[in-house]
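Hey, resending since the last one bounced:
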Amino acid sequence: MKIEGSQVRVRSCIVAAAALGADAAILADTAMAAGAATVVAVFAGQPDVARNLTVKGNDANVAGDVVIEGLDIGGDAISETIALAGIATVAGTKAFASITQATLPVWAIADTERVRIGTGARLGLPVRLNRNSVIAAFLAKAREAVAPTVAVNAAALESNTVTLDSALDGSEVIVDLYETH
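The structure tokens again:
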């Protein structure tokens, strides 16, 4: 029962049509320099929706930190440091709406090491939550059978994310939740 004069606190967040993440969606293989970090400000793409980013090297020797700067879903500046682990795809946790700069580490062993930046499956929520208050998630208007994985942070908008159990496929994603903050 709704209390007279109160506002509805259930919100449907339309995340938009989110495509399956791709490991070079933002930055294709880019050479690392020998003596100084490589700063990149021109990208092959931008996230299709606010979402986390991934980094991946082209061989087992690729190591060091990639520092990514950009904007969150609210338009505020954010950054994240993601440690490279050779050819493994390493996922960040913050949801970027856009990327403005990436700083790549120096190469470790040989002048052939390269880095790519892609998009992950964590989608940004447009609200700050202090607890998991997600009621349901929908992909292509169908309710997910398994509850999504939810990360919350009452202070940092970019750290409020949802990961569906189903693979993203370019269909609209809707998340119903109670606002908690």
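Residues 10-17+124-178 form one domain.

Sorry for the duplicate.
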